[in-house]
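User: Predict the structure for this protein chain, please.
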Amino acid sequence: MKYSIGKSAPSALAYMLVLLLGIISWSVARGQGQVTIKGELSSPEEIISRQTVTLLGQSGEEVPVNLCRNGHFKLSLPLDQVHVLRFTKPGCVTKQVRIDTRAACKKDPKKDRLVAFEVVLHEAEGQEAEQYAGAVGEIQFHKSNGRMKVRRDYTQRGDLAVTQEVIGQ
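Assistant: Here is the predicted structure, written as structure tokens:
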């Protein structure tokens, strides 16, 4: 018996090659992991103006974060970067949280990390906009094992910091 390959074989081979390259690039991109931030922003009810969450980029760009009516937000951050989230509401003291994702997936680079927290804004004392001197919180991951560490700083001047390590996620 004599077998021959028809003219459609090269196009089928090209199709299979493109499909294989697509699967490989998807798995490589998916395998890099990310940090998913879920949170809630709350503030005094008597202040009825709009609250906002903004992601501050390393180059100075400001990206608004989608904030639900109930104050919940969710976003995904790439690895190996330092991110700052700014929480504002007119009539309240502005707060920032710094998130360092450089070692977030140290244990398993393909696994995404989930970080959840709540930010409570309190009413400003004067008419002028107030904010803390630095970030009121910092989330980072230990370089050797990827364990999450949380630092909270509730002072205006930033001279008293309480550091707490959170074990697990």
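Strands lie at 35-42, 52-56, 62-65, 72-77, 82-88, 95-100, 113-120, 137-141, 148-152, 162-165.
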